[in-house]
Specification:
Blueprint: H1 5-20, H2 26-35, H3 48-62, H4 72-88, E1 97-100, H5 104-116, H6 120-131, E2 135-138, H7 149-156, H8 166-172, H9 175-194, H10 213-237
Parallel strand pairs: 1-2
Helix pairs in contact: 1-4, 2-4, 3-4, 4-6, 5-6, 8-10, 9-10
Protein name: Small nuclear RNA activating complex polypeptide 1
InterPro entries: SNAPC1 (IPR019188)
GO molecular function: sequence-specific DNA binding
């Protein structure tokens, strides 16, 4: 987003204020939108080609905030922000929100979470975007081009304050990580047997970790994730 350096700052500032409001209601977001005069973001004496490019970049910048690993509230705020940007843009025909097919499963899952938590205003906003055909489905989230690693990093860096802390636990639940943990535990058991009197099983004196450690470790992580999810839904259902 080198062409408009203030664009990311303004969008993140609006999402930050919405986060501080501790709300997921559209009316609260709309109030912040008006207070920050976001309806004028597309105003200015720029030519049509630049207006199209600016609109594309604005929509592309906000879209990642609508996906994991960002918090439930930030994702709702990003949905509202996408809705506002899409409907206030000056391009004719309207520029669409670029959506990679790989991300649609997460989007559909989030839509169901909105309905389950009875956030009908957010669910309606999502449905309105669908009905207006605001989404443009693509194979890749961005246009492929030759870019340096430095530029790619600059374009994908996001605010840590928006991230969902539960995602750190989710990293432990990755299939490869759990499989590696299981393999290490099995190797540990074999090594204990080799140095034991009865090599068919380890001596009790060196049995410091239970045999079902890997399985219980996975169960604890999954239980924590379910608890965290229920806690999040319970919190926002009363906002």
């Amino acid at each position: 987003m080198n062409g408009w350096p203030g664009l990311r700052t303004d969008c993140e500032a609006l999402l930050t204020r919405f986060q501080q409001a501790e709300s997921v209601r559209f009316e609260d977001f709309a109030l912040l939108w008006r207070q920050n005069r976001f309806d004028t973001i597309f105003y200015g004496k720029i030519r049509t080609p630049e207006q199209i490019k600016f609109t594309k970049e604005a929509l592309a910048l906000v879209w990642p905030y609508f996906l994991p690993p960002y918090t439930f509230q930030i994702r709702v705020g990003a949905l509202y922000l996408l809705y506002g940007l899409y409907n206030t843009q000056l391009c004719q025909p309207k520029e669409k929100i670029r959506v990679a097919l790989k991300d649609w499963a997460e989007v559909s899952k989030f839509k169901q979470e909105l309905l389950d938590a009875q956030h009908y205003d957010a669910a309606y906003i999502f449905r309105k975007l669908r009905m207006d055909k605001a989404f443009y489905f693509t194979a890749m989230p961005k246009f492929l081009s030759f870019r340096t690693k430095k530029n790619m990093h600059a374009n994908t860096e996001m605010k840590r304050e928006f991230r969902d802390p539960t995602d750190r636990v989710a990293m432990l639940c990755h299939e490869n990580f759990l499989e590696e943990t299981k393999n290490i535990h099995e190797h540990y058991k074999r090594m204990k047997c080799l140095i034991s009197m009865d090599q068919s099983q380890p001596d009790k004196a060196i049995s410091l970790i239970k045999d079902d450690f890997a399985a219980k470790f996975q169960d604890i992580i999954l239980d924590y994730q379910q608890w965290q999810k229920k806690k999040m839904v319970y919190h926002f259902i009363f906002l």
